[in-house]
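quick one before i forget lol
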Amino acid sequence: MSVSGLEYDAIRRSIADWQRLDQLMTGSKAALDAASTAGLPPSAQPAGTLFLERWSGFAGESAVIARGFADALTAASDDYLTTDDSVDQRFAELDGRLGPER
């Protein structure tokens, strides 16, 4: 736990989860982009192509969103850690003496 009461392990786990989701969605997008509609009947191929394009787009958008959350959590965690270190250092500099004894 930090000086401010934050649980850095929980934040790090969340970052890792969002990064895994980014990788999963990036892989899904690549798989959908590589998928073929050649096995479908000619009358169903346009619908199949549209389906693959749309879901590939959704997967790509989801990857970008997940990456954004991971980056934002990383930046926030870095800021919290810097602040915690600063506060901890200032508390360490305090002593209980008053007046000229300091």
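fyi The chain is about 75% helix and 0% strand.
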